[in-house]
Amino acid sequence: MRLLSAKLRRYPCLVIFAVALATAAVVVAPLTGRGFLLLLDWVPGPHSPIVPASAYGLHGGLVLSLPFGLLVGLLGHLLGPVVNWLVLAAVFPVAMVSISRLVGGSLPERLGAALLYGV
């Protein structure tokens, strides 16, 4: 037990990461039903092309998010609707671990900041 608490004090990001995964599971669980998750600003439908038309400079699209669009298109082609909630769930660990490292301090301070920022 003493070894575990020493590890947790030495690596607080592991605790933050575990809490972030739990938070992501709680938030995303209601959205994992059958079908696609339709968000207002990011809607890859069931028949989206792997390479978006903006990659070719068509439809006046910006190519700033082209790597993300290609990755999501490829994953959507391979995994189907799972990619919609998977991308949403990945936001929580990245955001919560990043803000906890930025805040610094003790584990309760970092955990509080991570939960506040993540939720």
Structural description of this entry:
The structure is a single chain. By secondary structure, this protein is an all-alpha fold. 62% of the residues lie in helices and 0% in strands. The protein has helices at 2-10, 12-28, 66-79, 82-103, 107-118. The radius of gyration is 18 Å and the shape is elongated. The chain starts with a helix and ends with a helix. The model has no long low-confidence stretch (mean pLDDT 77).
For the termini, the CA-CA separation is 31 Å
The shape is elongated
Number of helical elements: 5
Sheet with the most strands, sense and barrel status: none
The total count of strands amounts to 0
The amount of helix comes to 55-70%
String of helices and strands: HHHHH
CA radius of gyration is 18 Å
In percent terms, what proportion of residues is strand? under 5%
Q: Note poorly predicted spans.
A: none
- SS-based structural class? mainly alpha
Return the average pLDDT rounded to an integer. 77
